[in-house]
Amino acid sequence: MDIKEALTNFVTNSNQRNPYVSIEKLITIMLRDYLYKQGKTIVLGERPTEIFDFLMPNGIDENTEPVAVEIKMFRTPFVNPRVIYDVIGRFSLYREDINTLLLIIVNEIPDRLRKTLENRKESTGFQLIIWDINDLVRIFSLNEKLFEETFNSINTLLIQDTINNGIRRKSRTYIEKRERYLEQLKQCYEKDDLVLFLGAGISSDAGISTWDNLITGLFIALIDKQLVSNKIVISDKEKEQIVKKIIEQNGNSPLLQTRFLRNGFEEDFEEEVRKLLYQNASDKSKILEEIGQLCVPKRGKVGVQAVVNYNFDDLIEKNLKRLRVKYKSIYTEGVIPDTDELGIYHVHGFLPRMKKEYSNLTKSHLIFSEEEYHKLMIEPYNWANFCQLDFMINNTCLFIGLSMTDPNMRRLLEIAVNMRPENDMRCRHYAIMRRFQMEQLQTSAPVRSFESVNEELQESFFNELGINVIWVDDYDEIPDILKRIKINFDSVE
Q: Which of 294, 283, 147, 291 is nearest to 208 (CA)?
């Protein structure tokens, strides 16, 4: 195997999943083998200051002092000097008692840039060692067999690492991470950088019909409509049996079922959905209140830049109006909120309870059936896709009340990850999700291990999409979590 060609293809291959974690794993394994032959080691672990990837406590080669290692790679041929200067600057500020930094660039460093970096070494205040791809090839060539084995099984090795981390995971790990993430969210909120992405869990808490109840209700209404027109009387129990069979026949696919329903109702479809959507709805709930409070601007700061709402209902608008927050409901292309308005983007369509309060509702397109969803996925310049992607690339997004299984949303998140600047490799988004727990078997050690491994795997998967998971044991905890994001902000006089 040509090591340099393999590394170059790996770095520039845009289809490679989680390339930064993968290349770090590959380099770590190869350097550990290299150091082992020198009687030296590598230390991995949490990096509280996030200024380097790992530590070589006994140095490397003739260097016997601790050496910090930071790995950077660029997906394009252009090596961005600013990224390198940022690394050097951060290490200079936070290095504490570590006096040597090995900066590994997994690309070829142009001669001009290398010369500039060499000239800056003397002014750093610490020893700076710079490697590029050619230095890696030199080291890796000493054990080509290990390189080939590691390179070809890198994804398997990463999964094994995740599983092992899950087995060793402490019971309070999710709580410690949650506290850390909440502190980060507070900072984003104070910088006016937060965008809320809201799903069905927000509205169902206020009595809005769940998807399953909506589908069932629409089927019953459709059956009633057809039977009444033919003067046929049928009992409620018989209706339920018919609905069950129709759902089974459609493979329990909600999108397939809604295609059937839309065709059945024709022009009355949206009115039937509206009626069922609000039949048991309340305008208030604890979670709606806390979302509303997050959106209240204070002392010239807005905190929340925008709200992306996957729900059809207008409960967010109702609460913002009650709190006297200026907003603009956006449900079609070409609409932009004023500078003093909070944009509420209904990317799957909008069905407010009172139609007369809004204009141009006919332009709002409900994403309710299979063909509509497919159309949304294949239109990259659809306004709904464009605004979601813009927020995912440029802001910090907090996902609330979402299962995170929507294929189009995950696709957009993956695009956003690949479009991040080279100097911003952190997971910048957050999703509040309920932990998977088998309560009836909690006393079983194997089951607890499974839960820990599953949690670690879920976190790893979402990290690939740029998301940190904030775990809760119960959905009732979410209002308090949202309150904590703003509490420090409110307390400052």
A: 283
